[in-house]
Design a protein that fits this description.
The structure holds two protein chains of two kinds.
Chain A: H1 2-12, H2 21-59, H3 69-73, H4 80-102, H5 112-131, H6 137-155, H7 159-181, H8 199-229
Chain B: H1 16-20, H2 24-29, H3 36-62, H4 64-79, E1 93-98, E2 127-137, H5 148-166, E3 168-171, E4 174-177, H6 178-181, E5 184-185, E6 203-204, E7 206-207, H7 217-221, H8 226-231, H9 244-249, E8 266-275, H10 280-293, E9 305-311, H11 317-338, H12 347-371, H13 380-391, H14 394-404, H15 412-442, H16 447-496, E10 520-522, H17 526-529, H18 535-546, H19 548-567, H20 572-587, H21 618-627, H22 651-657, E11 666-670, E12 674-680, H23 682-687, H24 691-696, H25 712-746, H26 761-765, E13 783-785, E14 792-797, E15 801-806, E16 811-815, E17 821-825, H27 828-833, H28 837-857, H29 864-867, H30 905-920, E18 961-967, E19 970-975, E20 980-984, E21 990-994, E22 1001-1007, E23 1010-1015, E24 1020-1027, E25 1035-1036, E26 1049-1050, E27 1057-1065, E28 1073-1079, E29 1082-1087, E30 1091-1096, E31 1102-1107, E32 1113-1118, E33 1123-1128, E34 1132-1137, E35 1142-1148, E36 1154-1159, E37 1163-1168, E38 1172-1177, E39 1183-1188, E40 1197-1201, E41 1204-1208, E42 1212-1217, E43 1222-1228, E44 1238-1243, E45 1248-1253, E46 1256-1261
Parallel strand pairs in B: 2-11, 2-12, 10-39
Antiparallel strand pairs in B: 1-9, 2-8, 3-4, 5-6, 7-8, 9-11, 13-46, 14-15, 15-16, 16-17, 18-19, 19-20, 20-21, 22-23, 23-24, 24-27, 25-26, 28-29, 29-30, 30-31, 32-33, 33-34, 34-35, 36-37, 37-38, 38-39, 40-41, 41-42, 42-43, 44-45, 45-46
Classes of the chains: A mainly alpha, B alpha+beta.
Amino acid sequence: MPRGNATASKALRPEAVPPRQGSYNAAIADQTANLAIRGLLLFLIGVFLALVLNLLQVQRNVTLFPPDGFASIFSSAWWVPPCCGTASAVIGLLYPCIDRLLGEPHKFKREWSSVMRCVAVFVGINHASAKVDFANNVQLSLTLAALSIGLWWTFDRSCSGLGLGFAIAFLATLTTQLLVYNGLFQYTSPDFLYVRSWLPCIFFAGVITMGSIGRQLAMYEYKVVQEKTHQD
Amino acid sequence: MCSGVFVFSVLPRPRIPRMIAPLPQAGRRTPSAPRIPLMTVREKLRQKISAGFYWHGLLCASYPVPIILFTAVCILTCCYPLLKLPLPGTGPVEFTTGVRDYMVPPQEPSGDPGERPDWYRGPPVAYIQQVLVKAAVSPWDNRLVPVDAFRSPLGRVFSLLDEIRNHVHSDSSGVRSLEALCLQVTDLLPGLRRMQALLPEHGCLLVSPGNYWQNQRELFDSDPDLLRTVQQYEPKGLHTSATLKDLLFGVHGKQTGVSLNSRNRVVTYTITMALRHYDVRFLGSLRSRLKQLHPSANCSLREEHMVHVHFKEEIGVAELIPLVTTYIILFAYIYFSTRKIDMVKSKWGLALAAVVTVLSSLLMSVGLCTLFGLTPTLNGGEIFPYLVVVIGLENVLVLTKSVVSTPVDLEVKLRIAQGLSNESWSIMKNMATELCIILIGYFTLVPAIQEFCLFAVVGLVSDFFLQMLFFTTVLSIDIRRMELADLNRRLPAEAGMPPAKPGPLRPRETPPPPRPSPHTITLQTPAFRNLRLPKRLRVVYFLARTRLAQRIIMAGTVIWIGILLYTDPAGLRTYLAAQVSEQSPLGGAGLPHLAVAPVFPGGDPTGTLNVLPQADPTPALSENLSQGHAPPGISWGPEDEEGWRRLSYRHWPSFFSYYNITLAKRYISILPVIPVTFHVTPREALETRHPQDTRHAPPLQTDPSPNALPHGAPVQTDLTLYKVAALGLAAGVLLVLLLFCLYRLLCPRNYGQNGVQHGRRRRGDLPCDDYGYSPPVSEISPLLLRGHNMDIECLASDGMLLASCCLAGQIRVWDAQTGDCLTVIPNHGLRRCSSSGGWEHRDGWDAGAVTDLETLGGAEGQDAGGAGYPVRRRAAPSRPTLFGDQPDLTALIDTSFGQQPPSQAPSASSGFDFGGLVERAYLEHEPSVSPVFSAPPPQPVQRRRSLGDQPMAPTDWDSAVWALELRGNLIAAGRSSGKLELWDAVEGSLRCSNEDGVSGITALAFLNNRIVAARLNGSLDFFTVDINKPLGLLQYRGGPGRGSMPPSPCYSSDDVISCQLTRSVQCAHQKPITVLRAAAGRVVTGSQDHTVRVYRLEDSCCLFTLQGHSGGITAIYIDQTMVLASGGQDGAICLWDVLTGSRVSHVYGHRGDVTSLVCTTSCVISSGLDDLICIWDRSTGIKLYSIQQEVGCGASFGVISDSLLVTGGQGCVSFWDLNFGDLLQTVYLGASSEGQGVRQLVVLDNAAIVCDFGSELSLVYVPSVLEKLD
């Protein structure tokens, strides 16, 4: 709480941090640089995860002997990984920002090992959706939904996280749907109202995961800024 | 002055009950349990669990070796069934049956599963029949050129092919030919168009070296360079195993003998046919016919066994990528988890133990599952990371933390037991939750998930078992080792101190308590730290600092994984090989796209039935017989029996994969080879020679450099080997670099290693505690508040604001939340009169601060321009002069006084020291102010002195601020001249001042609207602050989201504030009042005259005079709960009952003055001039333990919560667990702060700490790492 208070007030009045003009500018530059670094990092993570998870999904329908293994990584549309990267950067920056605005910093299990666990579970959810044979799609969707909510409960437990997750999952599903309607994108086999029913769950879990990563990175940034401004 | 450790009672410190008693953090976890019966059930359960864990911990720590042995036996037993499982991997599995009584295995598993593997069901994908041909030109003739050694033997393949194709077996059941039995294939995969010329399509799958020439003898005969034809399809770069040459020749490339320099000039190749149906009679007749036609003289092949080869599902690189990703995440998880293991002897040992625990629990779960007949069908490698993540390392870490945080003075057994029982409830709860989640997963009714859940449940249980037995025991061993090392290190430190013998003052003869005597926790002094260490140690520290070993191990692991990946049969290498073999023929461009040569040119096998009559082979046979009296070249050995074994793993899968037939999870049956021997006469060889052969290849004998060629091939293979090695190394290095970059990116704390000072650097070279370990600094980063030019003398805070005053008389007001400097109240007289460089510099600072203030102040500073700062025109010395009436206070001189400039020392000594003494009075937690400022009666207030109407009296010479208090917006400053000033904290303007007294104000208390000032002459003045402002207009400072502290009343700038002396107790004490405390409506003063007096705040009435000290009073503590403690120059600490004025207890704790006192609900903490902080049990008066502080920092400590103590050191503050005396964390305040000690320390309401730190203040927020304590 005290720390968060400091965070909040600092964010609200960033101009009051350093007494000198020079270091004030430096701090601003520092903050933007940090923001950029964070965004870049999140973008890269998003692209990487998109590629890998897309591969998982692709494999399901591919022969055992992919004649071009590396090419199948890029088998889907080229713009999908950058889009995912951008989305994850936005989400990862949005989460700490919203935390700051709400004035309640996320403190539940704020450590890298927990974040790693979260990412692993996210990949596992994808893995399950891609590899496990479910009896029907309702079962698949229900299982994935339960897993996603479990992910949120295990690693996040913040209302803002839940709300943002739902909102973004909804938006993302809608966007995908629009893309599909416009023929820009195609599913292998839509099963429920022309949507793969697992898609929202995956989106939700992804939002929670990226938010977790973003929050963790933001903690670093805050510390770095603090250290730097008070070094001179 | 007598001193000594005085032990008051014989009662041992109750340790076991604390174990059972509900712990604070456990209580927090169960926030509300309104129903009493539930509560009791829970409590009972909890007590039982914790008691059980306690005894278990005792057991583990008592018998470590037997328990570890027992655990190892358990693990091995549980893993025993794993031996039966096939090794994980995707290599093919073989099963051999006899040829004679071969039956196609039934589809359903029959009753006798003992011998047969479970994959041996149903017909195979194909039966592979190979005809192994060995041919040689014999006898070798000198006229022959090397090409002759294989041209005509290879040429024989076409006739042999014809024989095989046209072989027909007819018996009662009908006429069968190869065409009817063989595996019909269709198109090649679209990616393999370039191979269309070489591999059969739309027909029987039958390959031979003849495919190079489209199975046409004419093409072969007209081929000028056979070797080139063969080699042009070979990969240029890496020498790989599943090449086209292997495929067509059917034997390993080196065996073929198709080269210019083969030693024995024997050409070996096979005709490989894949059969769909197994027909014993047809194959038997084919075999006997071929043998009859081309007998092999000394062939002793046993043609009894057929080998069934089962292929597992193969994982391509594409599938490997997600797997690798999950493993990377897993390793990151393990890394980040084990990084949290702290304060143990061997961090790596424990991390290893943790990983071993998790791994062996997984193995155990698999073993147990197989034992009970649950064969794992899941891909173990795939689910393994998820299992590890589900099981997790959390429990292990929690356990370690808990054990480590037990008091170090306990026996190891007890520590383990206590740590275990502390965490028992949470561990059990976590485990129950996880089991529940997994059970829910079990009811998803998806087989794969069910299986996963089953594994996870067994894994969880076995993990729990291992944690409890294995890890706990390892931990106990580790802790014991630490204890020993600890003792060894601590001995000299304690030996250096004079023995703390019980002094003669012991009033009662008490037997020594049975518990170990209170120990002293000694911090190494910085001087000690900066000693030149021995070289050996420096190397160790270097290693520790750079984490060399850790990084090397990491790099090694990465390389190892890379190698593993590369050498894995299904891994990268074969993939690369396949890639290369598929792609490199593209490089050899210019291959004309020839039409597919059908295997059966005639198309109708029956039409060629009569081409070879059955009883015709005698001429060839006789020819062979007449010629070959076992020519030395050709010999058949047992290695020829299963020549296909020398082919690569992927030979058959890739063979079939060309036709999009997968062998994954299926099997093929390889029939015994049919040996065929050809002897070619030199004449024949000469006849079939192509005219260009001699030109291209000179005879071997006439070769001018005979050594060049024979060594060519080995050199080439060596080269490829080196290439592979180099490639692998490069890939490994690349991977390491990549990971390193990622690591650096992810951990930007390292970004400043190139010279910039920051926290992490210090961990290596400043081992802070006596375990040789300094906890991570990253959790807390102090905020440095800079601005003062001289050492800070007084500190005051009300939680929101922070006021500090330095020796130069400058008062600064800071925002306690953010560390912003809000106001600067300069000492103008000082600034004006002295124009040295240092002060000029300060001028600049002040100007900057003023502009800051104005830019930020907004509404607050609206009239700042008009009012400005108080201007005092004086030309006075910057230092206070000596007082005539000053008593001898040299005993109070702070030991860190030497830091002052020597020129000022004589004049400022007593004054400064007094200030230092006074400021100690403000260290402690202030009782919370009542939120509503008690409104003064509305009366006409005359302003005595204010800024606007009346300038300061010019006669007032400058004086130092000796006491400072802050309430609401008002700063009360007591000066050495006896003047009491009230400043507006936000605007920095003087609101009023009172000069009724002449003796210096040594201490101030500001409670509600009353100010109590203690003066040097022993008098006590009570002031009332009045504001002529209606109650309703009181503003409250602080936004809604600013925290939970009560907002302080705010004085707006247009209020008229007056400060009236209501009562002055002239002779409160005979000697100067040293300490003044006010809380709960009481004012307590302590004086040099050995007495403590308690006054009522409202009517200034003296309630008690407490006598009992044999020296001047130096420290007093009183809080809202009316706890009163006092400490004196005699080193004694007295606890008083404020209601009755009686002494509750009386202990001697320090050699020298007691400098500071704080009470919590359970203990009393005192510090003395001996730089020792003692923690006493409040009810019994027993000293629990003491902490040796650094010189000069003895008095700086504070209590944040009931269990968190913070002490100041040389350039750092340390957090301690008050209950156990454990050093939790050390925070370094600045980079260049070695010599500066923290002399004052104030704990704010919002759990922040403010330390006086030379001329700087440091604002430290209480770390999140201590979440278990708050």
